[in-house]
Design brief:
Shape: elongated
CATH architecture of the largest domain: Sandwich
CATH class of the largest domain: Mainly Beta
Number of domains: 2
Helix content: 10-25%
Oligomer: single chain
């Protein structure tokens, strides 16, 4: 029934359906809810096309030229003529349900609460060795409207409508909206699920309009090719009649000509192949990091090192890969996946989570280094590494609720310390990203430097009266702060809502080059 139903719907929306056909369509819609849903899908697609024509992104519609299947007539006008009253009501209801969205109003007597908002039409989900020109998006980052130039490598972009696009360098694209993009040069393969039918990709030669399919494009200076891997697409040339292509068909086109070819999926990378490549690359990076980690364990200034390369299930002791320090106690925190498959991390989200540790000695400098993946910063202070108390020479390292790094050193009872803030290193758009956070402090110069992903982001020197002679750590906690006492069982809630991987503490101030090397050797 579906081919007949689709043809009836298309002809009705194109104003070419006679009265007998209208009666048949009316009966199908009355008797079959699935048919009514199909009507809504196609009506939405026609509205998407109409929007494209209005904006000038698509040329005026011509009579269909087809490479498969019968001709069908189309019209530039999509206004509905009076037909069967019930059918018109159905069409109006469908279009309103899909296109019109009422403005929400707050419930009576309740205050409006501002919601967290995102900006973007797509997400960069993952890639293999991508090299970008100019703008460099990170994995998990929202992509707004604008141009992206991939010099080499492969990446997968997922539009919020459900469209999945794999692009491979050298490729230049421009995102327009969640339903529309430009391919200016290079190669891509697009999978468009049913809810995203009508997705458009514009090229210098014309526009591809999806009808529920998987297709690929290859544009270079000499030629351009369209390959339909599965389903159907419409090709709207700049000065040609529109062409309907189906599975296995292709088109070699230029400014004024188009020639039929056979589709060749093997010329393009599909999501499954890219996923396998990502896994292989992750395993390689894990192996490279293991070599670096074993070398780092011999660093002469390392006070404590928690690589977390493997932890047995049920283990509540965290072994330190550095001599002279006893195993640390894991409290509450859960073993979870780290930066690579097979790599472990600790999730500090459960209530009370922390790692209890003890680091002896007096020090004239310190460097904290951690890989963190943060779900939210929903406390006023979110602990990274804090000493049990805040006496003279005790350093505290944490994140504020606004995403800034916070470092301070106690200077004695009743005296107000100096706080070293960084610019914001996290917001909710970074929930899928592993961040490398480093902070150094030099006692002699009273200078604190904050780093994000290998780069310095702030440097500040405290006034002389805010300095100390030495730093002492002693009993301390990773990922939380505060212990209950006999008389007062309450304590501050500062556990980090997220996970940590590879935590290191050095008794010296690492140089910017050393921090950069930590990042380069540890980045996923």
């Amino acid at each position: 029934m579906k081919p007949e139903l689709d043809d009836l719907i298309h002809r009705f929306l194109d104003e070419s359906l006679d009265s007998a056909g209208q009666a048949t369509l009316n009966q199908l819609l009355r008797e079959d809810p699935v048919a009514a849903g199909r009507f809504a899908d196609i009506a939405l697609f026609h509205d998407t096309l109409r929007s494209g024509f209005r904006s000038g992104a698509l040329p005026s519609r011509h009579t269909h030229a087809t490479l498969a299947g019968p001709d069908r007539k189309t019209s530039t006008s999509l206004h509905r003529k009076a037909a069967v009253p019930w059918l018109l009501a159905m069409a109006a209801a469908m279009m309103v349900a899909f296109i019109w969205k009422p403005k929400p109003t707050p419930a009576s007597g309740t205050a409006r609460i501002g919601e967290v908002r995102d900006q973007g039409f797509a997400v960069l989900s993952h890639g293999v060795d991508p090299v970008w020109t100019d703008k460099v998006p990170a994995e998990g980052e929202f992509l707004t409207a604008g141009k992206l130039e991939l010099e080499s490598g492969l990446v997968q972009i997922e539009f919020l409508t459900g469209v999945l696009v794999v692009i491979e360098g050298e490729t230049t694209i421009e995102i327009v909206s969640a339903n529309e993009m430009h391919l200016l040069q290079g190669k891509l393969r697009a999978h468009v699920p049913a809810p995203a039918i009508g997705f458009q990709i514009h090229t210098p030669q014309g526009t591809v309009v999806d009808l529920g399919t998987e297709f690929a494009l290859n544009l270079n200076n000499d030629s351009a090719e369209l390959h339909v891997i599965d389903g159907e697409v419409e090709w709207h040339g700049r000065s040609q009649p529109e062409i309907l292509l189906t599975t296995g068909k292709g088109l070699l086109f230029s400014e004024n000509t188009a020639r039929a070819i056979h589709a060749n999926p093997d010329l393009f990378t599909d999501p499954s192949k890219l996923s396998r490549m990502v896994t292989k690359r992750q395993n390689e990076r894990f192996g490279q990091w293991l070599v670096h980690s074993r070398a780092l364990a011999n660093h002469p200034d390392l006070l404590a090192y928690f690589p977390l390369e493997s932890i047995e299930p049920g283990t509540r002791e965290l072994r330190v890969r550095q001599g002279g320090i006893l195993p640390e106690a894991i409290v509450g925190a859960k073993m979870v996946a780290g930066r690579w498959p097979g790599k472990k991390a600790l999730d500090f989200s459960p209530n009370g989570s922390r790692v209890r540790t003890y680091i002896p000695g007096k020090h004239t400098g310190i460097t904290y280094s951690v890989w963190a993946k943060i779900d939210s910063l929903d406390r006023q202070y979110n602990a990274l590494f804090l000493t049990d108390n805040y006496g003279y020479g005790k350093p505290h390292w944490q994140l504020l609720e606004d995403g800034r790094l916070f470092f301070s050193v106690g200077i004695g009872k009743g005296k107000f310390h100096h706080i070293f803030h960084s610019p914001a290193v996290w917001n909710h758009s970074k929930t899928e990203q592993w961040l490398h956070l480093v902070t150094t402090y030099d006692v002699a110069t009273r200078t604190c430097v904050h780093y994000l992903n290998g780069g310095e982001i702030s440097r500040e020197t405290a006034p002389p009266e805010k300095g100390v002679d030495t730093l002492t750590i002693g009993h301390s906690q990773i990922g939380n702060w505060g212990l209950p006492t006999r008389d007062d069982p309450s304590f501050a809630v500062r556990n980090l809502n997220g996970r940590m991987d590879e935590f290191a503490v050095f008794k010296s101030v690492l140089s910017p080059q050393e921090v950069k090397e930590l990042y380069e050797n540890g980045k996923p």
